[in-house]
Design brief:
By secondary structure, the chain is an alpha/beta fold. The chain has helices at about 1-30, 70-80, 120-130, 155, 190-205, 230-240, 245-260, 265-280, 300-315, 320-325, 385-404; strands at about 40-45, 55, 85-95, 95, 100-105, 105-110, 135, 140-145, 205-210, 210-215, 220-230, 325-330, 350-355, 360-365, 370-380. It has a 6-stranded antiparallel sheet, with helices on both faces. Helix 1 (about 1-30) runs antiparallel to helix 11 (about 385-404), helix 2 runs parallel beside helix 7 (about 245-260) and helix 6 runs antiparallel to helix 7 (about 245-260).
Amino acid sequence: MKKNTLFLISILFLTSIYGQYKDIRAGINGLLKQVPAGTQWSVLIIDAETMDTVYTYGHRNLLTPASNTKVVTSAAALHLLGGDYELSTQFRYSGSVNSSGVLKGNLYLKALGNPMMTSSDLINFAKAAKKIGIKSVEGDIVGDDTFFDSLYFRSQYVGGSEADWETQPLSALVLDQNNGIKGNRFTTAPVFISEKLRGYLAKEGIRVTGKSVAGRLPQNTRLISSATVRLFDMLKVMNKRSDNFYAEYTMKLISAAVTGARGSTKDGIRLCFSFLYDSGAFIKGTAIFDGSGLSHRNKIPTGVIVKIYQYIYSNYVFRSEFFATLSISGIDGTLRGRMQQQEGENNLHGKTGTLTGVITLSGFFTTKKGRNMIGAVFFNYRKGDPKFYRELQDKIFNLLIKKL
């Protein structure tokens, strides 16, 4: 009798859940009927706890993801390196400082993966040199960016027609995201940044007689100071602001940090695919050409993105860190203006994506009944405007939050 009762309860529960999903599916289908003919879309919604599929349409379709590519890049970086991995630029010197404060040797800026160095850091370097007694330098200022390869420009490291989406020069040694380097007479970042440092040293009364050059850090140098940030801190800016420069830098960073060789986009992509295989997220046909999602040639199904979120959700080592890198609907980042005064406000922690003809959204959210969910809604379109597709995404997530 007891077994029969439990069986009936189970049947009633499953019937209730099925009916609930049936209503949700009908609601989403009704919203998607508004989509203009010719639009491609892919939708996948799952329960983060039970892994039940609430709604799916074309979750294996190979669509252009735009900045949802950053979900792959950032998740792979956390998986391979950990959030506490240190990104630094070191300020060092060779030779010796005599009793008169003359350094008979060179000053070095050594890049070790920090894309967040600013002019304030260079000012601090100059002050640190003065503090240890350096008054003049009889040598050069050498910028060492050999942590990465020398393919600085997007047309080089991505290829194809990607020159149309040129970003700042992608060198390992970075100052203020390398803004201002294009068109400057100092043609490479190491030389440009070394020359900037020369100016700050001069303000501290330190004269450098040599040149600003690019080169390699030799052995037996001494550390003066360093500018260091955690990987997590960089990824938080990258995902919330959807920063393309940081995303492309991260792809090369993964390569350099894991292999010990000069970081390259090509090798970073290889390691991202290794992550997709390790996490069980890989779907045949997935194509990645960059770390930012600027390339229209990127093809990533919602099934891949949702599986990455699922993997992260089940991984307590870096779940909270990845969660904190995402924008919050109606609150901050690229989701600041979304779902305000709606069911989804301050709920969805997600990643947006926008290119010409592409609107994508994915993330974690919690329903009114407290269910933790994962969802992704991608549109590749020829008709309509971005606002229409964003509002449609918001309506889908609002519906899920309210009804589940």
